[in-house]
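User: Hello! My lab partner asked me to get a predicted holo structure for this protein. The small molecule is fe (ii) ion, SMILES included with the sequence. Please write out the structure tokens.
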Amino acid sequence: MKKLLLSWPFLARGGAALALVFGTGAVQANDPQVSLYTTREPALIQPMLDAFTRDSGIKVNTVFVKDGLLERVRAEGARSPADVLMTVDIGNLVDLVDGGVTQPVKSAVLEQTLPANLRDPGGQWFALSLRDRVLYAEKDLAIDNFTYEDLADPKWKGKVCIRSGQHPYNTALVAAKIAHDGAAAAETWLRGVKANLARKAAGGDRDVARDILGGICDIGIANAYYVGQMKNAQPGTDSRKWGDAIKAIRPTFAKSASKGTHVNVSGAAVARHAPHAGNAVKLLEFLVSEPAQALYARANYEYPIRAGVALDPVLVAMGPLVVDPLPVTEIARHRKQASELIDKVGFDH
Ligand SMILES: [Fe+2]
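Assistant: Hello! Below are the structure tokens for the protein in complex with fe (ii) ion.
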């Protein structure tokens, strides 16, 4: 029997919920559906949702919310049909919790599958995939290992490409640096990176590969899953040409105890007023399962949150991912400070 424990805010919903929690084995009102609000491209997650429906008989109503997920759920209030809230970036997940639109979940499956680092201690959010931020290097450059600190080495003057420092992917990276080494060291480092830029910090992650192919820069920082997308793109397309121009290396923080690579997460939470909270938990439990994680790794080349999942050969070629042990919540905590620092050093100007 699957055990499902839901905590106080859910109990507060009244008699039906009480019966649900204390009943024998009956864990769910028999309404076989769940509503998912997601900022993620529907095409990206549809294979996992289809597999969940096949597996559980629970239908998933997907609502794609490109911007303003928190505002929308807040505005809908107690009548919100949302059961699961899914997004990328630890900052966005923490904002949902701080915004009061999530509820705590207790699930043995989620707790046993996800290391403590990859979920909220109170069960308010859970990571579903890892998004490591890696080095793109011109494919013939002799680089075997690299630290994020190396980005500030004067030997790379005029050779580094990166998107805006204020993009959440970079804010999180700078936040991690602050968390590891303090604000003063982070500032020195960031000024060094800025001094090495080949062009304005702008564009997208894939533009780093494009500009390496174009000879504008030799190295840059961008997310690993784009390497999977580009190197697996149709031969002859721009995307494939950019992918073929680079190799990807997982940098580490020089002083980080385990020499880990910076990762951000995609994740999800159960909505505070979820009409189908039991089904919502079932969906989350399914999304961390081995079959769903294998789909994540294949559909978007994101790194699985559990071991033993088959990876695309492009990801395998980057070597094993050693995750920076810094709790992702520490990254979220320093993101405002990071944003201010990026401004202070004029990184984007
Ligand atoms: Fe992205």
